[in-house]
Amino acid sequence: MIELPVISEEATKRKKPDWLRVKLPVGKEYAKVRKLVDQHKLHTICESGNCPNMGECWGAGTATFMILGNVCTRSCSFCAVATGRPNEYDTDEPRRVAEAIQLMGVKHAVITSVNRDELKDRGAEIWYQTVVLTKELSPATTIETLIPDVKGNWDALYRMIEGGQEVVSHNMETVGRLYRMVRPQAKYDRSLEQIKLTKAYGKRTKTGIMLGLGETKEEVYKAMDDLVENGCDILTLGQYLQPTKRHIEVAEFIHPDLFAHYKEEGLRRGLKYVESGPLVRSSYHAERHVHV
Prior knowledge:
The chain has helices spanning 9-13, 28-39, 45-48, 54-59, 93-104, 124-137, 154-161, 179-182, 188-200, 217-229, 256-268; strands at residues 43-44, 64-67, 71-72, 82-83, 108-113, 142-146, 167-169, 204-211, 234-239, 273-276. By secondary structure, the chain is α/β, with parallel strands linked by helices. It is built from 11 helices and 10 strands. Belongs to the radical SAM superfamily. Lipoyl synthase family.
């Protein structure tokens, strides 16, 4: 039986606290990125995931590109990305993404994807080609790849991470107890093993966890210890925000002071870098994670 967090009627109706307010995306650089994304028919997790930092990041001339389409084979209860049967497999996508990154002139590019469980290689070849072509067109650009759960297909994992990217991220998303509720098609221990194998391959490793889903402090500490034990270098912690009424409700709005405490605690427990704050998302300040 899944243990659900207790959420009061009052909690579900209350407004977001002031610290979760964000600015609307505007400005010259934002418009430039918007135009490039549209011209090259690209998907960005910034849009598909309703990221609260889209205005800030796009305003700085950066974006996180989502490859392999914008329909996911998973049905995670927290995620705003569309779920269904994907019909997009575009072998020209790596070229378009690489050219867009070159045109944008970004110093650090983040690439992610939906889950493609129906593909034998989980989309690994598209991943590999995207990184390789980006490096060919923009050799000075550093790359982080935020890769999905490969369901134990380690051959697919190694193909995904051998293109030359500097950082490989795989998000745990939540603490172990809440996995069946938050990530029903994933396994906590399997995601830890994926991080462990990525580290053993020689890559800088990174993961992200959402807070406010009903987790306890002790469970967050346990997750930190598990990550350190399995070779994770970088951890991002951010507030979960409910995308629509169909998604899992917010159990708690975590105060910024507690986020600051978690950052100190994570570093104390052995993580090399912790990005922690209410509006932090996996790709937020990603350029700072290359040389930690």
